[in-house]
Amino acid sequence: QENFQEELGDVLSDLMLLLVIAEEEQECKPREVLQQAVAKWRRRKPFVMKEKKVSLEEERRLWTEAKQKEN
Fold it and tell me: 10 Å Cβ neighbour count for 44?
């Protein structure tokens, strides 16, 4: 568990660094990235955001439909 937490910390650190670089290069702002990520989660996985309870089969169907709409 300790190694897993350390690895997650490394991933988070890398992500934060990328966000800082992107903001400095005026590519995007961290808030915009987070807003887009939350919006995508809500579209693709409303059951994760506790907006809807579904079975595993329904989860897969909803994710597939949401993904197809984006493409």
Answer: 19
